[in-house]
User: What shape does this take?
Amino acid sequence: MEHSNFIRTIIEDDLKTGKHDHIVTRFPPEPNGFLHLGHARSIIMNYTLAKDFGGTFNLRFDDTNPVKEDATFIDAIQKDIEWLGCPWDALYFASDYFETMYEKACLLIQKGKAYVDDQPAELIKATRGDLKTPGQNSPYRDRSVEENLSLFEAMRSGEFKDGEKVLRAKVDMASPNMNMRDPVIYRIQHAHHHRTKDDWCIYPMYDFAHPLEDAIEGITHSLCTLEFEDHRPIYDWVVRECEMESTPRQIEFGKLKMANEISGKRFINALVNDGTVDDYSDPRLVTLSGLRQKGVPVAAIHRFIHSLGLPKSEGETSLQMLEEEIRSELSSSPRIHLVKDPLLVTITNYPSDGELLTHAADAEETIMREIPFSNQVYIERDDFVLEKPNKKWKRLALGIEVRLMHAYFIKAESVVTDESGQIVEIKATYDVQTKSGSDFNERKPNGNIHFVDAKRGIPITYTEYEPLLVENADRSQSLESILNPDSIKTYQAVVEPAALTLPGPYFQAIRSSYVMRDSERAFHRVVALRSSFKG
Ligand code: ATP
Ligand code: MG
Assistant: This one.
């Protein structure tokens, strides 16, 4: 599948003009959380661009921040990317470049392009100026190369406490681009790193580390999200001043943002920590592991991502678009009858113990299944009202006849209620001539409803996941005030026996949803058959 986007055009030009003969892209997650649908845009785009042009796709853990990172994320991220079907050609860790980065920082010092600053973080911030006012030079800006080198070495060897000194790039305190005003490129952090252990107590900052990582790996096109556009000058400065052999090009694209969904590591972490969701793979989350748990087919995610292309702006995307792709991906799943909220119907004139009705489970009629039928069946509680309310009601009501799909017409004659007045059973009659497949056409039923035989149907737990947030949630409010209190609905449902024997795990539960079989006794909804979007 060819998908055009502006980055593809850039790559095509670079190959045509001979700027590159082999392209290299990368996905550079920070191992500080789980991947979500937004990351899928970056993964799939980087992967597809590399593959479409015969290039290389790297996975690189951007593990330069020891405090927030954890090895468990490294495994989870790899598993998610494998699941997405975007295998990387090579795996790298930014922490493997710490020595090279240190040498490059020394090179900057030697060139008079970096200096050790003793000012505390607050003062550095306060003297950066703002868009209207230039920043003020640090009193330490003109330290000699020798002094800087020995101080930087002392920083590395652990002679100072956290925050006592930093290394800053010496660029331009009056630059209109704030990121060019002598950004901090190294800070002291006495912290244990999950890979380099206690080897280092200074760590490089993103603006210094990222361009070096890209250049070291020979990345040709470094895709990142729009908020880094203002960082491109410092990115280019670092590559140039560090005299890197290869010159990666940073290209920004818009983040994928899902309307009314919680994405973003910070929010997801908050939900996990306060127990709103059990873990990161909760099917209500748009984490990749949550989508996997929910049974979202990978092909649907790819189609969704490609259909949006690579916009240069950030708009909100509705989950409905992904749901459309899931529906089309699952549309040929075998059809079954699943009654979510069963109401018993006793067919008083049905003479025998029951029968087996043979019907196809698919449109091509290649998958046959036997549907048991007897004098007791379950229908959806929703499919019955005492009195037909209007012409649009194409379901059962007292005195009204409907078709039980694949079986017979039945007519509701009376109801049985319990002491609270709740209807617990419908007494109905059927008409033997109306058997499905016969050419009976004397009268039309008031609709077709599905059913499951009460004796041979299989009781299951059926779960429907609803959005975690209330509709049109005001994201400026506290998380707990906008959480949907009813985001998991569990039903004691019944399915026809074929739902256990047909190859799964996906089925179309007729008239309701695409569902997934989790076990012999548990099914859940992947997506409703029709969108509820009122849009
Ligand atoms: P979050 O925004 O969830 O905290 P992050 O940006 O901190 O995520 P990183 O691990 O830094 O996550 O991201 C890895 C890569 O994924 C980066 O190149 C980043 O640009 C990209 N990425 C992150 N979020 C999105 C998104 N919503 N849409 C597209 N790409 C994204
Ligand atoms: Mg980040």
